[in-house]
Amino acid sequence: MNPEIKLTILKAFKFIIIIIAIDFCFGFFTKELFFSQTTGKFKRVTYAIRDANEDVIIFGSSHAHRHYVPEVIEKRISKTCYNAGADGQQLLFHRAMQKMIFKRNLPKIIILNIDENFLFKSEAAYNRLTDLNPYYAGYRNELKPILNLNSSAIDLKLFFNSYKTNSTLMHAIKYYIKPQIDYKGYRPLFGEMTVDKIEEYKKSKLEDEFIEFIDTNFVDALKDFIDDAQENKVKVVFVTSPNLMPRDTSKNESFQKIKEIAKLKKVLFIDFSNSPKFINKLDLFHDITHLNNKGATLFSASVANLIGNE
């Protein structure tokens, strides 16, 4: 072999070894930092996956995270409860969470808080799946089919230890500096809505992350979520959170499809979307779509009463 070529190959080999060593060291540090978090969203996800043994587990987006008070539910139905809701996350994430939780523990009841647009196409829903990367090494079989929906080269990407947690590093550091308190996963919101705030909301132009087109991956995730629970004798309950202002969902294809699936698979569906207990009750809402702590307490009690009567 030509000496120059041989030297080039040797240098390239040494470079690769150095990169792998750096990746290993950085990955080890970030992994330790990540899994030692005691507050914040990733601590809650890790707890739900690795430690939660509560009777009732709650899934959903911020409407789950902010609306279900475990202590209220526990008192009403005499079952332990943990809120595993995650802000901004949708069906693919919740299905992945369910698969990882079921690998270790089977709760008695799972509540999925339904957002009416859950089945509509959303690039954000795929992009936010990177929150699951740190768990890939321990749950490859559970996560690969879901993460592959966003990247066909997921094994190659997650071969590098530093890639698994680099997007979460700033979160970990932030919560070390400023702890984020929760109550069995629930984080309350305070403050009340006003007429002026409603008018401001109506004037604002919020970008909608959804495209009104049914994503079959989301449909499959919802069906699998139900099937997996029912096969494991875990009761599934769908719940829609209250709205401040009345909404007509009769023409929302996503919401109607969810109701159709629930009916077909005999899933209890509790719809509070236009409940008179909450419509136009400014003192129960923190903002236009989220209950404050007072509203969440009332809502949690109402949901628990209905589940307890089943």
Note down, in words, how this protein is organized.
By secondary structure, the protein is of the alpha/beta class. It is 49% helix and 9% strand. The protein contains 14 helices and seven strands. Strands 2-1-3-6-7 form a five-stranded parallel β-sheet, with helices on both faces. A two-stranded antiparallel sheet has the order 4-5. Helix 2 crosses helix 5, helix 4 packs parallel to helix 14 and helix 5 packs parallel to helix 12. The chain is elongated, with a radius of gyration of 22 Å. It starts with a helix and ends with a helix.
Major sheet strand order: 2-1-3-6-7
Query: Could you list the spans in which at least 5 consecutive residues all have pLDDT below 50?
Result: none
Q: What is the average per-residue confidence, as pLDDT, rounded to a whole number?
A: 90
Order of helices and strands: HHEHHEHEEHHHHHHEHEHEH
Binned, the helix content reads 40-55%
Overall geometry comes to: elongated
Distance between the termini: 78 Å
Q: Biggest sheet: strands, sense, closure? A: 5 strands, parallel
Structural class of the helix and strand makeup? alpha/beta
DSSP strand (E) fraction? 5-15%
Number of helical stretches of at least 4 residues: 14
How many β-strands, per DSSP? Answer: 7
Our Rg estimate from Cα atoms comes to 22 Å
